[in-house]
Write a structure and sequence with these properties.
Low-confidence stretches: 1-6
Strand order of the largest sheet: 6-7-4-10-11
Radius of gyration: 16 Å
Oligomer: single chain
Helix content: under 10%
Distance between the termini: 25 Å
Number of strands: 12
Structural class: mainly beta
Length: about 160
């Protein structure tokens, strides 16, 4: 499977060990057809837990919580719900600049899987870029106009 080109919203690291803690850094390289970015929304893939987004000065940070696909144990407690979406809004990122938005998380087990971080970019004037496309079997993400940022899970580090 191929991963998105640099003109798209992408992850800084395209691979990480399954079951590890991972800092997802989403790179937003441009606005929407020249319009400045005012919001970034990221859907958290099933199996990802312990989600902690990084605040950004000048932006409002919100999370949407919901039931997890599978409960897990943390510090002697069973956790059944967690962050399902992260939203930064209210800032202004001009089209001619880039920025990065970070989220700390624990990845699921299962090396060889690919996780999609569907991302929606809101811009001034109501323009929206939906980075949600998923390649079909045998298709490259490069073939899609707006591919979702993808993370390939590798073998765990011994």
């Amino acid at each position: 499977m191929s991963f998105g080109a640099s003109a798209h919203v992408t992850l800084e690291r395209l691979e990480a060990p399954a079951g590890s803690h991972y800092k997802a850094v989403l790179r937003v390289p441009h606005g929407c057809s020249g319009a400045a970015t005012t919001g970034v929304r990221v859907r958290i893939p099933d199996g990802v837990v312990s989600v902690k987004p990084q605040p950004k000065p000048g932006w409002t940070l919100e999370t949407e919580r919901g039931p997890l696909a599978e409960a897990y144990e943390s510090h002697g407690q069973t956790i059944r719900d967690g962050v399902r979406e992260v939203r930064w809004h209210g800032g202004v990122l001009p089209d001619e600049q880039f920025d990065e938005f970070a989220i700390l998380m624990k990845l699921p087990a299962g090396a060889g899987r690919t996780l999609a971080f569907a991302t929606v970019q809101d811009c001034i004037g109501g323009a929206v870029e939906r980075w949600i496309g998923l390649p079909a079997a045998g298709q490259s993400a490069h073939d899609l106009p707006r591919p979702a940022p993808l993370l390939r899970l590798t073998d765990p580090v011994p």
